[in-house]
Design brief:
Dna Ligase, domain 1; 23 strands; binds glycine; Rossmann fold; binds adenosine monophosphate; 12 helices; 9-stranded mixed β-sheet; 6-stranded antiparallel β-sheet; single chain
């Protein structure tokens, strides 16, 4: 390996723009390619039109471009086994892939796997049972005597839509029938039914090599489309880091009760894991419970976490790949960060693409991370539901929010929508 590292970053959302921004600042970063990227990632490297799920396409790109490291943004290629694909190919096996093996990615890819894992490791989470079409009757009976509300989760990846919280038994029974009947395709062949937990949610990110681990800045995202956390779930409308209620005492509990047993469980099962564990948590009466695991960074949490990380991210990934993660010291910035997501009108339902984005050059004092954007002749246009994340760093998250909102007013496209109340409950 030369001293510069040629990196291929997979993905094309706001998370990947934040990664591209951060990776490109490193003196260790050689060539940076992003597949497929967006109009924002193109400011920090070269976009290549390869689908991250097209493993042979990724292979060709890696070999043609002399890539030395692959950083995987989204969960899909991880759950489909991109790590294993590299490990099994003699031309690729020496190239580190930042992300877990397919076995490790099950923590996100199968809710039933994750629940059984937590149960076996004694990790606090909501009580649950799992059902398939073969024991639908039993499932219907189980739901009928469950306390309300009750939470139903499709086992597999369902693009963030596979969790339904039901407030009455009829609705829950219908939902169980629909899920097992194919409402979410194969993702719903197995359904987890769990206890509803009431509290405030937050996101903890851990970088691990499967043995040691490093805890990154904590964040909280705002998933609902409407002000005051109302309406449909989205990929995330904004985020704050750090959420002030996450005290050192709470983080000690998270580390001892959740992070340590998670890493121990990964080791015990011999799952190769060189990447991020994103732990979605809820605080109930001062105690943390796991809502879900993800095998990647969060979006839009990455857009507030990376601006608060002073470390050289390429050096961190290199240490991870070389088995030296234990020597890394995480340097968390003292400032806070808030991001506000500009979305296309209609999202998370139907929305139009191709709307010209104006005013990007007028934004100041914020980091503008592109999510669903595309460069076209004549300018940058919208290309997704979530369009732009506006991140500001300031002494506290409220000051940061007000600057992000000023910039949210300056950047425009037809049917733009955003929440003005990110952090309202903190
Ligand atoms: P997930 O896809 O597992 O992150 O679930 C999506 C959202 O549903 C979470 O962010 C929570 O707001 C909510 N949720 C999931 N499981 C529970 C639970 N057991 N109790 C309360 N809310 C939950
Ligand atoms: N913002 C939540 C997620 O990335 O899953």
């Amino acid at each position: 390996m030369s001293d510069k590292i040629n990196i291929l970053l997979l993905g094309g959302g706001g998370r990947e723009h934040a990664f591209a921004w951060k990776l490109s600042q490193s003196p260790l970063c050689g060539k940076l390619l992003i597949a497929p990227g967006n109009a924002g990632t193109a400011q920090h490297g070269r976009n290549v039109n390869v689908n991250p799920n097209d493993f042979p396409g990724v292979r060709q790109l890696v070999l043609n471009e002399n890539i030395n490291m692959v950083v995987v943004g989204p969960e899909d290629p991880l759950v489909k086994g991109i790590w294993d694909f590299f490990a099994a190919d003699s031309a690729l096996a020496h190239i580190p892939v930042i992300g877990p093996s397919q076995a490790g990615a099950q923590l996100e890819g199968s809710k039933a796997f994750a629940k059984a894992f937590m149960e076996a490791e004694g990790i606090p989470t909501a009580a649950y049972r799992e059902f398939t079409a073969a024991n639908l009757k039993e499932g219907l009976a189980y739901v009928a005597q469950h306390t309300l509300p009750v939470v139903l989760k499709a086992d597999g990846l369902a693009a963030g839509k596979g969790v339904v919280i039901c407030s009455n038994i009829t609705e829950a029974r219908d939902e169980l029938r629909d899920m097992l009947g194919g409402k979410f395709g194969d993702a719903g062949n197995r359904v987890v039914i769990e206890q509803f937990l009431s509290g405030i949610e937050f996101s903890v990110f851990v970088l691990t090599d499967g043995k040691s681990y490093k805890i990154l800045p904590v964040a909280k995202d705002y998933k609902r489309i409407g002000e005051g956390d109302t309406g449909l779930n989205t990929g995330g409308m904004g985020a704050v880091s750090p959420p002030p209620f996450v005290t050192p005492e709470l983080m000690k509990k998270v580390e001892n009760r959740i992070i340590k047993p998670t890493i121990a469980g990964i080791q015990r099962r011999g799952m190769v894991y060189h990447g991020f564990v994103f732990i979605g948590l809820i605080e109930v009466d001062g105690d943390p419970f796991v809502i879900e695991y993800n095998c990647r960074m969060g979006d839009p949490e990455t857009e507030v976490v990376l601006p608060r990380l002073n470390n050289d991210l390429v050096a961190m990934f290199q240490a991870l790949a070389e088995g030296n993660l234990d020597k890394v010291v995480v340097e968390e910035a003292a400032h806070a960060a808030t991001t506000v997501m500009l979305v296309s009108g209609g999202y998370p339902g139907d929305y139009e693409k191709g709307k010209l984005i104006s005013g990007l050059e007028n934004a100041s004092d914020s980091l503008i991370f592109h999510a669903g954007t595309q460069e076209q002749e004549g300018g940058i246009v919208t290309n997704g539901g979530r369009v732009i994340a506006i991140t500001t760093c300031a002494e506290n998250f409220r000051e940061a929010l007000s600057v992000s909102l000023e910039n949210a007013a300056k950047i425009d496209f037809e049917n733009k929508y955003f929440r003005t109340d990110i952090g309202f409950d903190l």
